[in-house]
Automatic annotation (TrEMBL):
<dbReference type="InterPro" id="IPR017927">
    <property type="entry name" value="FAD-bd_FR_type"/>
</dbReference>
<dbReference type="InterPro" id="IPR017938">
    <property type="entry name" value="Riboflavin_synthase-like_b-brl"/>
</dbReference>
<keyword id="KW-0274">FAD</keyword>
<dbReference type="InterPro" id="IPR035442">
    <property type="entry name" value="FNR_plant_Cyanobacteria"/>
</dbReference>
<dbReference type="Pfam" id="PF00175">
    <property type="entry name" value="NAD_binding_1"/>
</dbReference>
<dbReference type="InterPro" id="IPR015701">
    <property type="entry name" value="FNR"/>
</dbReference>
<dbReference type="InterPro" id="IPR001433">
    <property type="entry name" value="OxRdtase_FAD/NAD-bd"/>
</dbReference>
<protein>
    <recommendedName>
        <fullName>Ferredoxin--NADP reductase, chloroplastic</fullName>
        <ecNumber>1.18.1.2</ecNumber>
    </recommendedName>
</protein>
<dbReference type="InterPro" id="IPR039261">
    <property type="entry name" value="FNR_nucleotide-bd"/>
</dbReference>
<keyword id="KW-0521">NADP</keyword>
<keyword id="KW-0560">Oxidoreductase</keyword>
<feature type="domain" description="FAD-binding FR-type">
    <location>
        <begin position="96"/>
        <end position="218"/>
    </location>
</feature>
<dbReference type="InterPro" id="IPR001709">
    <property type="entry name" value="Flavoprot_Pyr_Nucl_cyt_Rdtase"/>
</dbReference>
<keyword id="KW-0285">Flavoprotein</keyword>
<comment type="similarity">
    <text>Belongs to the ferredoxin--NADP reductase type 1 family.</text>
</comment>
Amino acid sequence: MATAVAAAAVASAAVTPPCCTSSLVAAISSTSSAQTLLPPRYSTSRVSLLKSVVTLHSNTTTIQAAIVTETETTKKVKKESRKNDEGLSTNVFKPKEPYIGRCLLNTKIVGDDAPGETWHMVFTTEGKVPYREGQSIGVVPPGTDANGKPHKLRLYSIASSAPGDFGDYKTVSLCVKRLVYTNDKGEVVKGVCSNFLCDLKPADKVAITGPVGKEMLMPTDPNANIIMLATGTGIAPFRGFLWRMFFEKHDDYKFNGLAWLFLGVPTSSSLLYREEFEKMQGDYPENFRLDFAVSREQSNAKGEKMYIQTRMAEYAEELWQLLQKDNTFVYMCGLKGMEKGIDEIMTGLAERDGYVWADYKKQLKKGEQWNVEVY
């Protein structure tokens, strides 16, 4: 079966869209971790231009697909709950009967000097695991635990838009950091699921459950202000958001608002999907703002390390003004520690204008304007 899948992946080169250059095909073909190419969907009339950018890091290859879309008439959309959409799928597959997908691509996306390894991986779904930007899937690692019971599933935020990295609605992507740590006994411990995923090779099987989650779904208003706060692999759902906004063309959605991403990482070599985001910023400077917080390399005017809340403090007044608009939505994903720092920034600003931040934030949550998924 594995041989058949690999053969099918290689055969897909025959239907590579004409916009994919020979150098791209050669680069992908020469990389063992990338044995599948973009499908022909992107050669249809719905897309103005597709550029596939391959960034080589040592022996790894990162694939980014950038779609430049046509201009459409802006449409105002009535604010409504995104969580009540009848077309939203949840728990299509459960742990006892998971969907068995195949790994198509698994690539390390940080530099060799980065603290830890982070990988971008793409799995087949055959369109049977329909998901929305902001949802998660579960992965059930093979084998049993110390008690001889099957491993429990681990949830991961989906790192692709609904059409998937290849645009055919038949794949799902994850952004996973390999967990390795030393316990109290001095023993090196490897996270069961993260190491299983980071070690996957093309054609390997993956047991998938879900999709799940409604907290991080995108707003339906194409004119919204969307503030995204991420640390490390917490960038995953926002990559899906931003692909939908800037890399894809949809008949029923054209983003005309403001997307503002704050990404916090320890080193510049840990800036995930940097090339993609910088391209978006260059192509849509009026609609996309991008700010990095690199804690081990940057500091503010006071000499303090540049964490995500430190970077946000530089724009505190502007952010507070945005938060007072009913079409502003905040999404936070990543390490739990950043939430406290952000609350500290907003508390003073709210008090100055006669608000109690804790109460104001509750109202934002009630209106689905403050959305948090931290760990």
